[in-house]
Amino acid sequence: MPTDKKSEWDWEIKHDQSWFNLNIREIFHYKDLLIRFVRRDIIASYQQTILGPIWVFLQPLLTALVYYLIFSRIANISTDGIKPAILFYLPGSIIWTYFSDCLTGTMNTFVTNAYIFNKVYFPRLIAPLSNVLFHTFRLSFQLIFFFLIYLFFLVVYRNVHPSLYILLLPLLILQTAIFALGAGLIISVLTAKYRDLDNIINFLMRLFMFVSPIVYPVSIIPEKYKFLFWMNPLTAIIETFRSAFFSNHPVYGKYLLLSGFNSIVLLLAGLVFFHKREIKVMDVV
């Protein structure tokens, strides 16, 4: 049957892919599928549960209360003059929970979606992106809860003072998502092939939580170790979050830029590595 030489192919199968040909435009063609995945995760999260969406609010609050009792009342660790102490712990708890959930969900991309990946084609990046969007949806409710508590102390006790750095809050959330997505994409490829890495990563995550300023301020870190702490992107994010709502808390602009740079580099590395290995990984899942 004769074919028209001028006709164009809609798609083609290649034996290999370029490292830097990420096909980001393809994501936009599957935006409806991305939305469906997010909706699926939202519905699945709250079906057949006792507390339902209430747990979204309780998780950071209960965590912050435990931190308050242990690290403020018992260990007597400084909160850099931020009072009440519960408001010192909430930003760190909220950011850490968001980062941890995004990273954990992303690193399990191939394991949890293997049954879909083996049946139908769509950009595999849709799965980790939907995971990040789902946890961003949950984060929005936790932030609303934080704002309500903050407004209570602002209006009733007038012992907190916000600053203009509140305008940076969307950027802080974006940086956290970029950091978690980039790290998660790299880990997802490794854990799909080496299953015991999952336990190692979970252990390292517990250690990583304590090198992030969640229960303590950077000011108590010895000067010779501070630069190592600032290399952690979460350090600048959490400290700037606190600066936004407590005008007496110092702002470290250069370290926030360093955090953004490190996060973007990690995301680019994750995208390249994920795209290069996504097809081969499916043979071992």
Describe this structure in words.
This protein is mainly α and 285 residues long. The chain has one domain. It is built from twelve helices and no strands. The protein has helices at residues 24-29, 31-46, 54-74, 85-107, 109-112, 114-117, 126-157, 169-193, 197-210, 223-230, 233-245, 253-281. Helix 2 (31-46) crosses helix 7.
Present the secondary structure layout.
Elements: H1 24-29, H2 31-46, H3 54-74, H4 85-107, H5 109-112, H6 114-117, H7 126-157, H8 169-193, H9 197-210, H10 223-230, H11 233-245, H12 253-281
Which range does the strand content fall in?
under 5%
Shape: globular
Specify the helix fraction band: 55-70%
Give the biggest beta sheet.
none
What is the count of structural domains?
A: 1
Number of helices: 12
Structural class: mainly alpha
Give the total of beta strands: 0
Distance separating the two termini:
41 Å
H/E element sequence: HHHHHHHHHHHH
Radius of gyration: 22 Å
Low-confidence stretches: none
Write a brief structural summary:
The chain is mostly helical and 285 residues long.
